[in-house]
Amino acid sequence: MLDRDGFRPNVGIVLLNQRNQVFWGKRIRTHSWQFPQGGIDRGETPEQAMFRELHEEVGLLPEHVNIVARTRDWLRYEVPDRYVRRDARGHYKGQKQIWFLLQLTGHDWDLNLRATDHPEFDAWRWNDYWVPLDAVIEFKRGVYEMALTELARYLPRQISAKWYMRRGATRSKEPENRSDRNSPIHMELPPGASFEPDPGTNGVSPHE
Prior knowledge:
Elements: E1 7-16, E2 22-27, E3 33-34, E4 37-39, H1 46-58, E5 65-70, E6 75-78, E7 94-104, E8 121-127, H2 141-152, H3 161-167
Parallel strand pairs: 1-7
Antiparallel strand pairs: 1-4, 2-3, 2-8, 5-7, 6-7
């Protein structure tokens, strides 16, 4: 479902824990980390799509979260042609997204990356609110920055955008554990999670 400009309606989800850390998921069999997101189906409201995607990708139900805020308007990004299916080129331009800020009221053990037969993530962690944008595929970085900046005002404790500008552009420090160096962003995986680098895929799913 595309609008007249070629953008597919989509939702993005920033999920907070009690420490103002955000859910950060590693796309299955790739090096790419991102927030949960997905398309809005015909007849769905953005909020309905958000709750559906929340369960499909993270395994959470509406009773596990509170909606803190959402972006006022659509935030758009264009997808380069090389990531667009050949039959969609000339029609599909990118995504327009409503972003939701959610507060987790449940527990870590309520999270389930295998809630459906088609998982999006194979690892996750809690990350500082201002996520490292160099871990995000390049054409999505502007939308991530806009969404995080707009939603930051609703955090239970304010986090300065100036702090983000100082730290957000820097890469993570070299990991102490040499086994982590295969990961380009050097993030420690949670207990029980696996990291399966697959150089043959770019981790992009522009039609979510």
